[in-house]
Amino acid sequence: MSNRVAIIDYGVGNLHSARNALELAGAEVVVTSRAEEIVKADRLVLPGVGAFGECAKNLRASGVTEAIEEHVLQRGKPIFGICVGFQLLSREGHEMGIHPGLGWLPATVRKLETGGLKIPHVGWNEIEPVVDAVLFDGLRRSPTFYFTHSYALVPDEPGIDAAFCNYGERFTAAILRDNVFATQFHPEKSQENGLKILENFLRWNP
Amino acid sequence: MLKKRIIPKLLLRNGRNVKGVKFTELRDTGSPVTNARIYDAQGADELIFLDIEASGANRKILYDTITKTASEVFMPFCVGGGIRTVDDVRQLLLAGADKISVNTQAVERPDLVSEGAALFGVQCMVVSIDFKRHGPACKVYTHGGTVATELDVLDHAQQSVARGAGEILLTSIDRDGTMQGYDLEITKRVADAVDVPVIASGGAGTLQHLCDVIADAHASAVAVGSLFHFTDQSPIKARAFMHVRGIDVRSERTGTTAI
Amino acid sequence: MTAMTELRRCSRCTIPETHETIVFDDQGVCNVCRGHEFKKESIDWTAREEEFAALIEQSRGKYSHDCIIPFSGGKDSTYTLYHMITKYKVKPLVVQFDHGFLRQRMLENNVRTLKKMGCDFLSFRPNWRVVRKLMLESLKRKGDFCWHCHTGIYSYPMQIAVKFQIPLLVWGEPSAEYTSYYGYDEQEEVDEKRFNRWVNLGITADDMVGMIDGVEPRELDPFRYPTYKELRKLGVRSVCLGSYYPWDVKTQSEIIERELGWQGNEVEGVPPEYQYEKIECYMQGVRDYLKFLKRGYGRTAHLTSIDIRNGRLAREEAMRMLQEFDGKRPPSLDLFLDFVGIDEEEFLDLAVSHIVSPWQPEVAKIPDGRKLHDMGTWDRTIPLTEI
Description:
The complex is a heterotrimer. Chain A has helices at 16-24, 35-40, 52-62, 65-74, 84-87, 191-202; strands spanning 4-8, 28-32, 43-46, 79-82, 92-93, 99-100, 107-111, 121-129, 144-149, 151-155, 161-167, 169-177, 180-183. By secondary structure, chain A is of the alpha/beta class. In chain B, strand 8 and strand 9 form a beta hairpin. In chain B, helix 1 (32-41) runs parallel beside helix 2 and helix 6 runs parallel beside helix 7. Chain B is globular and about 45 Å long. The model of chain B is unreliable at 254-259 (pLDDT under 50). By secondary structure, chain C is mainly alpha-helical. Chain C has helices at residues 31-41, 45-59, 75-88, 104-117, 128-142, 147-164, 192-199, 205-209, 228-234, 249-260, 284-295, 299-309, 315-325, 332-340, 344-352, and strands at residues 67-70, 92-97, 120-124, 168-171, 237-240. In chain C, the strands form 2 sheets. A 3-stranded parallel sheet of chain C has the order 1-2-3. Chain C has a two-stranded parallel ribbon with strand order 4-5. In chain C, helix 4 links the parallel strand 2 and strand 3. In chain C, helix 3 crosses helix 10 and helix 12 (299-309) runs antiparallel to helix 13 (315-325). The longest helix of chain C has 18 residues, at 147-164. Chain C starts with 30 loop residues before the first helix and ends in a 35-residue tail after the last helix. Chain B binds chain C through residues 16, 28-31, 34-35, 37-38, 40-43, 206-208, 228-234, 236-237, 240, 243-244, 251, 253-256, 258-259, and chain C through 17, 20-25, 31-32, 34-35, 37-38, 141-144, 180-186, 192-198, 200-204, 206-211, 294, 353-354, 356-357.
């Protein structure tokens, strides 16, 4: 089976690592902002760094949102959202004002409540997967991943959480719903654990 | 829990890594890309590259080095040296850096920090502060430690955070390369006063020094140069040592979870 | 100053806190011992063996040789060769990287072994003029002069794999026998990551180019790992036999002695009952002495710890032995100092600059070790010219 992955490029910085990591994991990768590439791809990756509002604005301006939504929400193409690409799946983000997200998930994004711990939450932290999914195959107990963020996605109710992480509060580190998987951490920066999860994504058939 | 980070710090000059004592007496310490691959294999948590000869002519070498590194190692890295404009920041991020460290410009044109933070996020902007003690005072230096300012290290750190620095890389010029231990007092003073993580730098000479600056001076991360370049210590050995002494570092590849 | 006995040690074996990557658990047991428990109790060795047999079948008969067996002629590589030929009937290319200090009895062993086994053999010895510089530089930087040997041993056979297009290499013991860079629960591939993690002391050939003078980059090629691209194109697998077959040094040494006439030898700082260990290098005594100066233990601690893990030795006896045998100044040090061109004071200063805390050796009080029977026959040549 071909494993063509389209990394959606909407002008939010460096996608080298995501591309190289996916290639190493065995994918054929295109970095693109064109709808036809999204049509051709078997899987999609939605990256994102920086501020929620800025990212949401750029994504909408890129003109590929419709194609993404058609192929993910209607045709069931697997998608992996990373960091702000994870947060964007929510209804709205409360970072420097209130900004609408893609609204795929019943969730909002608000500042981490760390109870006095330093912000941003930057570095390696353990995650605790709470679903049994192929995406977490081959990882050891409490695997560590690289996080760098100040905001957290908060689902309206439980059910879509796939993994948690603790930093002052217990927050959602990953979500899983049908063919949508997304993580607050950066798999493309998380050395072997990250490569493992990307490999798993490539053989995930939701 | 969030792990304390072990961060090799690599100084770039003409496409090679170098390391000296108190910012002088430089020795060759290898090729940046192979160094990065080694530290990746040894489980370093992150890397810092500082271009210490950041002239226009050498800029291309830096971009090439960063691009090549980003294509070969899958870990976060921070790049600094000679960054003057938001466009410099953007170029380095596009080349593959995850964070940008600014030093001289954070003093001379502090708006660069806030502009960068607004465009690329605070997690992206690291303010690097080099300091020297003068009796009880502790002054900030710029231009690779060659120019003294009147800024107090604590004030400068707090103002940088207010402008949008996501982390502080705090380097003691007096201790740099001496391997006599970090400046615990100043590190603690800064780490306790700012809300963002402080990366302690300058002076690591033994694995115990790494433990001390985290346990006693509240650093969130340790930057390490000479200890990894000039002794047979490595991030993976450091982790095991620190883990045994109660520092919460990543332990996945030390064998502790192997059972 | 610390006495050897003051170091914190594993409550089960004799490995001290200064051992690289050691971690003690709540019961004071080290991670290497825990790894051995895993090896004994949790691995399905039958399944592993089947996996290995399938791996060999993938390359059997398809190339000039079925596999490469990197070979020093010491107990582990000799046993690997014996096992691969008698059990799996492979036609291997045996590849030796000659570090320059091979001892006479070992060379005689090799001739016998290779004739008895019947296999093609390649040996490569790098430029001695370059090697001396590399030894001194790695001693200065890392307190370990064996860079040329370790990088060569692990790079050169990979280069040969690329040259001859043979995609399978079978090494001997997995590193989990001695350290915890990898656990027995992991798939330890003898690849560039492993090379970088500790084998090359954190220095690649590309790094070394800028660290020493008077050596051309191409002269460091024997120590250079092939590129990831070349190896991936070849589809190389580079594995340890000990990942598929439960390694047991003592039993295996007995087998090669009996079946191949392999002979052990005395080694500086090693108790006489362990004459199968590290007979392949006449600089071994200096290497172990350096380790003692830096970390407060020598080879006896290693050897006895393996015996303890295999239930063959009591810990008290092991402690007595390591106090008797570890930490002697080897007579071969004089030879080493001539080779690298420094005096003993400089050597000790360098060693002491690499000490691992909390160990503090009392350098002035280190007793002399005994001279080996064949030391007079070791080659002492210094290059004619530095050019």
